[in-house]
Design brief:
Layout (H helix, E strand, L loop, with lengths): L1 H20 L3 H7 L17 H15 L1 H12 L6 H7 L11 H12 L3 H4 L2 E2 L5 E2 L3 E7 L5 E7 L3 H22 L1 H5 L2 H15 L2 H14 L6 E2 L12 E5 L4 E2 L3 H6 L4 H19 L1 E3 L7 E4 L3 E4 L5 E3 L2 H16 L2 H11 L8 H14 L10 H14 L6 H20 L5 H16 L2 H34 L9 H41 L10 H23 L3
Parallel strand pairs: 5-10
Antiparallel strand pairs: 1-3, 2-3, 3-4, 4-6, 7-9, 8-11, 9-10
Length: 555
């Protein structure tokens, strides 16, 4: 225990020293982590954010893999980090000098339980690529397959675990002592980052990610994912099929060998949005180094350490944002944000709407070929940052992936419109959302949930009554949101009342029909066709109810 505390203390001092050395004493002072440096006093408004971004990037680069990854992830959170800083953090490089082959050999033999000369027919000592977590070597199996072997750096896990523990302690301290950290749930964000980075340290997870995406394209001959050789893979060693090709942004070589760059761009975009909007599981870092082009314009994705996941709800919200942005519907965008449950209680709705209107106006009546979807999302995240709207991390990863992909596509085909390419996927998702079968399933699910609530209502009311009698009931009402809340409550009660009336009317009509059949009487009342008219009225009421539900965008 004492040894761990000593190690943590030593590493914490290294972290603070790196920040101080790079001229960030004022930054640490603002966080309450050090005494203020007299050379860096002054109000925050006078601080040059770009300079802070440069210094922060240098400090994180110096501190190693944990902080490099933290900076890279932070660069995607433009809803939390100022643009000047996030743009600098996006420049963080994950390339470091290779570690010696003797250590590579030692790790492989320990992990796979045999001499490297028995495991591989060939093994190139010089790495193909290096990164802060591991490096990749070319090799050939005894059965003849060419493979790429990724080997984790020695003793990296203890270093990362120490860093993550320190970051968790800092996040806890900041949440206890600063309003902004509590507002943005900093501890939850660090926990999420820790989980993601810990997964990256287990190469078996990366291998399973690759296999999952490979299954998505099992029937598509134009998308190739490297196969994993599990007999040669462990937590620290990953052996995968070597798929050679041309790097996706090597335009000169692609042209020299006669590749169709427009077709390549189309296949990359279609395959990415298929992963995102249909499968909900996608490659989180589609930069040129992770995409190779093979003969017949086949696309090969590499490196699945970072992946993104979207639930059915998030897929729908993402599609809704695209459709609303395309249609210039600011109210629709606000409604989508509200449905996502990310609008803060103290939001200045008028100012928020004004900023979204300004963003919409910027792209109003602009040709689809001139609209950059990734750029729009980054600007949308900036609006969110100014109004303390915290975008879900899944959407942030997606926005960064689209921005990265858009940069590549603009090199392959400057005239290609990603906005135009994504529209069919968004429209398909919206149609599926409002498919009668889907609506029926959602209605049944909500009915079951409501039934569960109603069955527990007597007990809940009894508990509330006891609490009131004990004088322990606490009410926390936000006056700014009361009007909206009451309007929503009024809508819900009206819809429930209308549904009950429709149900009662339907039961009454069924009774009339059954009674008429038993008595053998005609369906007339004072020479008026009761059943036919009632059926028409019930049908109109049902259609009106569906119209109101569809118009609200909720079920």
């Amino acid at each position: 225990m004492f040894k761990n505390k000593l190690k943590h203390s030593k590493r914490l001092q290294e972290i603070l020293n790196a920040f101080l050395k790079n001229g960030l004493s004022h930054f640490l002072f603002r966080l309450g982590l050090s005494k203020q440096d007299s050379t860096e006093s002054g109000p925050i408004e006078q601080v040059n954010l770009h300079d802070i971004g440069v210094k922060l990037r240098q400090a994180l680069q110096e501190l190693g893999p944990t902080f490099i990854k933290l900076g890279q992830i932070s660069s995607t959170r433009r809803d939390l980090v100022p643009t000047e800083i996030s743009s600098e953090l996006a420049k963080l490089q994950d390339h470091v000098p290779p570690f010696p082959f003797e250590q590579v050999e030692e790790i492989i033999e320990y992990e796979l339980g045999a001499p490297i000369t028995q495991l591989f027919a060939e093994f190139h000592q010089k790495p193909l690529a290096t990164a802060s977590i591991g490096q990749v070597h070319a090799a050939r199996l005894p059965t003849g397959e060419r493979v790429a072997v990724k080997v984790q750096r020695p003793n990296i896990r203890p270093t990362v675990e120490t860093d993550l523990s320190i970051l968790a302690n800092i996040a806890r301290f900041l949440e206890d002592n600063t309003d902004w950290a509590e507002t943005y749930h900093l501890r939850d964000m660090i926990d999420e980052f820790s989980s993601s980075l810990t997964d990256e340290l287990d190469y078996r997870i990366e291998g399973r990610n690759g296999e999952r995406i490979a299954k998505q394209f099992a029937e598509d001959p134009y998308i190739r994912i490297p196969a994993v050789f599990w007999d040669y893979s462990t937590e620290k060693v990953l052996t995968a099929e070597m798929l050679q090709g041309i790097k996706a942004n090597d335009i000169q070589q692609l042209d020299a060998e006669g590749y169709d760059r427009r077709l390549i761009a189309q296949r990359i975009v279609d395959s990415m949005f298929y992963q995102v909007l249909e499968m909900g599981f996608f490659h989180g870092d589609p930069h040129p180094g992770n995409i190779f082009i093979r003969p017949e314009n086949v696309i090969s994705y590499m490196d699945f350490g970072m992946v993104g996941r979207l639930t059915e709800e998030l897929k729908f919200h993402f599609a809704s944002l695209i459709v609303n942005m395309r249609n210039g519907d600011t109210d629709g965008m606000i409604e989508t944000f509200s449905d996502m449950g990310i609008l803060p209680d103290d939001l200045d709705m008028r100012s928020f709407k004004r900023d979204l209107d300004t963003l919409q106006t910027k792209y109003y009546d602009v040709s689809l070929n001139e609209i950059h979807l990734g750029t729009i999302f980054m600007e949308l995240f900036q609006v969110a940052y100014h109004h303390h709207v915290q975008i879900p991390s899944e959407i942030s990863i997606l926005g960064k992936a689209i921005l990265t992909m858009e940069g590549l596509i603009s090199e392959l085909d400057p005239d290609f419109s990603i906005m135009k390419a994504v529209e069919p996927f968004g429209e398909k998702l919206m149609k599926e959302r409002y498919n009668p079968l889907h609506l029926a399933q959602e209605s049944l699910k909500q009915w079951m949930e409501n039934y569960h609530i109603l069955t527990h209502l007597p007990k809940d009311l009894k508990d509330i009554t006891k609490t009131i009698k004990k004088g322990k009931l606490q009410l926390d009402i936000n006056v700014k949101q009361t009007h909206t809340f009451l309007n929503r409550l009024d809508q819900i009660s009206n819809r429930l009342s209308f549904s009950i009336i429709l149900l009662s009317f339907s039961i009454l009509m069924v009774g009339v029909i059954v009674g008429s059949a038993i008595a053998g009487e005609r369906n007339l009342l004072w020479d008026f066709p009761v059943i036919e008219a009632g059926s028409i009225i019930a049908g109109l009421m049902f259609l009106f109810l569906l119209y109101r539900i569809f118009r609200s965008g909720k079920m």
